[in-house]
Amino acid sequence: MPATKPAATPAIERIREIAYQLWLDAGQPDGTAEADWYAAETIASNENGPAKKARKAPARKKAA
């Protein structure tokens, strides 16, 4: 039975596409895979909008 490759999640596929495009745009240099991947992760996370921050509870008024 042939081995099957596990399906990648859409997020991983998008990061892969971006990293590949970064590599192509840079002229296909050797040794930049890791840097391209990290840059692609940042770009992909920004495509989904900024991370939502937890809202801080309003301050209570002090008793007079």
Determine Rg (CA atoms, Å): 21 Å
Order of helices and strands: HH
Into which percentage range does the β-strand content fall? under 5%
Poorly predicted tracts of residues: none
Q: Which assembly state applies to the chains in this document?
A: single chain
Largest sheet: none
What is the count of DSSP helices, taking H or I runs of 4+ residues? 2
- Global structural class: mainly alpha
User: Approximately how much helix is present in the residues?
Assistant: 40-55%
Mean pLDDT: 82
Large-scale geometry: elongated
Measure the end-to-end span: 78 Å
Q: How many E-type strands?
A: 0
Textual characterization of the structure:
The protein has 64 residues and is an all-alpha fold. The protein has a domain at 10-44. It contains 2 helices and no strands. Helix 1 packs across helix 2 (33-47). The longest helix has 16 residues, at 10-25. The termini are far apart.
